[in-house]
Write a structure and sequence with these properties.
single chain; alpha+beta; five-stranded antiparallel sheet; five-stranded mixed barrel; 24 helices; 20% strand; CSD domain-containing protein
Amino acid sequence: GKLSSYSIMMAPESTFLCDVEALQFLRRHNIDLNVWVDQGVRYVSQEEAALPTAPSMCQEGLFEPLVRICEQAQGTAFKCQAQRLREARQAGLDLNAWVEAQQGTVGKEDSSRSEGADQRRRLDLSPSDGAALSEDLACRKAGLPKLWRMLKEAGRPLVVHCGLHDVLFLLASFEQRVLPREPAKLAKLLQDCLPSGVYDTALLHESLRHLRLSPLRLSDFVRTAREHHQRKRGTELQFVLEGLTAQRYGSGLHGQGEELIHEAGFDSFLTAILFSHLQDDNPSEVSQSNNRFYIHKSTDYLSLKLPAGGNKMAFSSKVHDGEKLVVATLCDQDAQENTRKRISEARRQDREYDFFYRKIDDSCLLIPNCEQAKLVKLAAKLPGVEWKDFYSWQKGARQQEAYRDGIYRPLERSRRFVGTIKSFSPQKGYGFIVCQDCFRIYGCDVFLHQLQAACFQEGQHVSFVIQCNANGQPQARDLEEQWFTGVVRTLDVRSGFGRIACPTTYRMHSVDAISRNGQLSDDQVGGCIHFTASLTRGQLLVQQVRRTLEPRQEDDRLTVDLVNQILGPCREGVLQHPDRRLTRSVYLGG
């Protein structure tokens, strides 16, 4: 087939939060950040593009959700306004040199104590100015948003490699600044934007048995897939490279071009070649992987595929047979240094050892789909290794994590609490949730961090799980809008005001919930409804109403970690290297 590849630098948004370690990663792979700022194509989301360009729209808090996040930049993160960054470049700032020179934290707390304080202050900027934003808006409606619309209209599938973070970031950048929290709504958004779906070649790497021993690294995976195709078919797939693609990336067809790795155009070029080989050799497996995503350091994959016939959506599922997941704990230094070598040697000596493993951390390996008899033989060759089934290991690791440093700090996975957002300060970046049940247990209100509160407001009722900090104080995680069940007691048709009796909300606030004009109809009086509500000036006001409550998606608890570690940064517009924050804790989640 014909192949054309393009590299397009997307210019940063008007205000964005970035991580210096992510920028350093790009510099190590020869990405010119000065060109990114100077020549990058600017863009807006569909939501932003649909708004008029009047300055008042910006001044009224159009960008408040992102500004709120940016106000607390710290550690290796810093906040920046793109317009002023471009002005700094024109004044002589070398962004490449600045990024390469950074060591440790670059947050506000360091700006007055470092040699580069002047430059750092130029990057650590105040919230967006409405007039400047509106000037940018008109020119940013063209360019990449137009290209995004063309890609959607073409109806072609999107192919990625380890691309969950990228897909979510695309949706957040070009469609909805704040992505839906409900899995079904997120899946619907993905289907509407990309009707032919997304294929993640990294997930196929895990699910295709004959390719699992290949390194996941894109260039290595391409080479393995090409060699397997040639052995199976007796011939190579032929590609016709067009114009500049042949000139720039032609060497990649022959396994060369290492210096181009992580350049967007070259990586997409390799991904296209890889997918072509996988599709030609394994059409059925490729078809089944539609809208399913590989998750780094996890036994699960993420499914954003809408079910047929109204069936329940499975948000996450095991990549491998859950009954054949084994963890090898490397108990001493000799085992940690030599076990991988011994496994490789066992493979070379006996083809029976065709299993593979994944590294959890330096002391633990995950071994999926290994038959018991083979495992017994393997154990005899690996001294200093303790073997457990995955779920036993996971339970013990969770307990060990809960008592880390001698302090008990469990995440209460099985219980969700219900409370009201008592206060929230965008300037300080935190607030508190009042919850009677939590107060009885902990003797205080629940701390709410801004990353958890991005989509919620003061007075709103939420459900959440609790995780204690190092001081044993409760912190809210995995917030969801809380739905209540009640009976419509009265309705004044003329004014539209009604009263809803609900035991749960009455126990919390000692008042009935009040509906306003248009929320209820005559035929609902005396009937059961489901509603959300917020507390405003002592009144419990109904926000949403529905007659029947949709079944709650009982997702695997892995999704809590996904929201906090993957989806959260995408929702808030944080530019981060996708795997930087993912640790062994993801294995503990599901």
